């Protein structure tokens, strides 16, 4: 049968498109279509290939290959046991067929299934030897992946050493029983799971990306996958990755578990983070009910789930069911005993009324879609992000268009596409403004950035957002200064610089009109006095807070405290010898790579050239190792990434940085670090890790965090086996429960103060 030309053309185009999307998804972690669109495209391609089996190059088709996330800069490691792929479906009928096939295979309808939330993250395989983490490898092509051990070791909720625990031994071979009797973990075991980011961390990082003029990430999965492939573990550590574990790979000797339920109990017993909301159910109808329950629960979770994974609970039955594709390459295997049911993304169509431009504190002009209100994922959406000018042009978004809105990462509404069939003739292409909408300064675009900026540092919109930021509790904690007060101070010209705040007097400030001339709203002396008192207290804040207040690019709260701890004073930071040295590391690494005699680009050189290059390479490599060892000599220094170091150096050499140092000196403000990166200066809580949960009676969360850090302790966001104390107040939830399950010490506010 001869295929119609249009089908063959469609088949060839789909192959090229799917292959291109695979590259963007797996290697670049920057897909430009949703998972749902990709899956539908790949299904259509597979159907065409079935219809026209005579089509050439079938083996080269992306439907016959699995995704491959391997990238340059990492050593390759072969998995002890292949990481297979799951068949997936969006259709309840296909899920019913999956369960029916297994029922026919085993001649029974009462099969028990494990229904698990499908975390939308990056797959990872961990190897523990004698209970100690020795290697972490990405999925790669299923047979081998990239060694990302150094990056995975920065994940706070992952124990490097398994907790020893006693478990009942299932009635299995004597070899299993002997292994369990000797120790509670095998000699070597591969454990599979997912690395992910919570929504709040995703939002924090994307906000920083936008402020820095960079392309924001589409969703938490892309950001987690991209973070795993960063070459600098210190930068990875600044992004609070988390991990969840659920899969069993190679194991020597075999671990004595009979079911998925047993396996998850074993993981929890070792102190490893496991899945929430996993259920064992019997039969297809119960599977479907469990999936629908997960669909209702996922809206309240703090991380992305894009479906449910359904597995036979019994490991012996899994072994009998086997794999589809057996006898072929291991990378093409998919288990017959497991299936992923994926939730279709919730989207809504509405009309784009207008595009407004927001001006951020670094001058970035961010376009925002003003929409006809529409109900989406449980909320009414009237505004959505358009990211930047390039994104508007790429999607050809025009005012008046009917657009599809989706919650990116399930939290941030975003315009994902345009319905061209409904486009009216009057809908003209959107022209991004050439000037700042607030101060009219001509907008600029720096090479290498996607952002368009207002270059005027005195722009009222920038100054207002900078004041609002500085007033925040985590920065200078200037009570009642943010929002309307900051806006009025800028509008009236009372404050033209953050440092002007220190000249404010309560009586005059009390006359500030927060409203309009027609509808005045006077601040009042009482409120003004509180603000002036808070400003006075800010003089005594530590160096870490003041580094935040200076608003240096890429410097967050944890990094500011680390920089402060390493240097001690503002003058030491401004004249640092450490930060330029740290910022040079990438250039040194690049020199080592370029001079590598084994590099393909260096082949075919003369003997003299090769000898000179080998000597240069050896010298640079030794220098690089020495620099890395120096960097690791201070814990705080190891958490400062080279990008941030370069930005801090650039700031204090800039006119703005020099002005800031000069103004602080004029005001008599000389902030110092509350803790130093030396053994002598460490406090009573040095080396201890804390997690805060619930509401404390006499301390805010920030105050408790500050007290702990001042005493040398560290505060993290999640409970793990490495947590020393959980400080719990009223309405403490899952973190308190997890602490009790892991045997972590729990303190109330009085207990914390006693420890201090």
What would you say about this model in short?
The protein is an alpha+beta fold. The chain is built from 28 helices and 22 strands.
CATH architecture of the largest domain: 2-Layer Sandwich
Number of strands: 22
Largest sheet: 5 strands, mixed
Sequence of strands across the biggest β-sheet: 2-13-10-3-9
Count of individual helical segments: 28
Task: Describe, in plain words, how this protein is organized in 3D.
The chain is of the alpha+beta class and 756 residues long. The protein folds into six domains: 5-64, Helix Hairpins; 76-342, 2-Layer Sandwich (D-amino Acid Aminotransferase, Chain A, domain 1); 348-456, Beta Barrel (OB fold (Dihydrolipoamide Acetyltransferase, E2P)); 460-538, DNA polymerase, domain 1 (Orthogonal Bundle); 544-666; 682-755, 3-Layer(aba) Sandwich (Rossmann fold), CATH 3.40.50. Helices cover 38% and strands 18% of the residues. Helix 27 (734-742) links the parallel strand 21 (725-728) and strand 22. The longest helix has 26 residues, at 607-632. Mean pLDDT is 82; it is low at 1-5 and 166-183.
Question: What are the key terms here?
Answer:
28 helices, 18% strand, single chain, 756 residues, OB fold (Dihydrolipoamide Acetyltransferase, E2P), D-amino Acid Aminotransferase, Chain A, domain 1, 22 strands
Architecture blueprint of SSEs:
Blueprint: H1 5-27, H2 35-51, E1 76-78, E2 88-89, H3 92-106, E3 112-119, E4 122-129, E5 132-138, E6 144-146, H4 149-152, H5 174-182, E7 188-196, H6 199-211, H7 220-228, H8 233-238, E8 242-252, H9 260-269, E9 279-282, H10 284-297, E10 305-312, H11 315-321, E11 323-324, E12 334-335, E13 338-342, E14 347-359, E15 365-376, E16 379-385, H12 389-395, E17 402-408, E18 412-418, H13 460-470, H14 484-491, H15 506-509, H16 525-538, H17 543-549, H18 557-567, H19 570-574, H20 578-583, H21 585-594, H22 607-632, H23 635-638, H24 642-653, H25 655-666, E19 689-693, H26 701-710, E20 714-716, E21 725-728, H27 734-742, E22 745-747, H28 749-755
Parallel strand pairs: 2-13, 19-20, 19-21, 21-22
Antiparallel strand pairs: 1-6, 3-9, 3-10, 4-5, 4-7, 7-8, 10-13, 11-12, 14-15, 14-17, 15-16, 17-18
Helix pairs in contact: 1-2, 13-14, 17-18, 21-22, 24-25
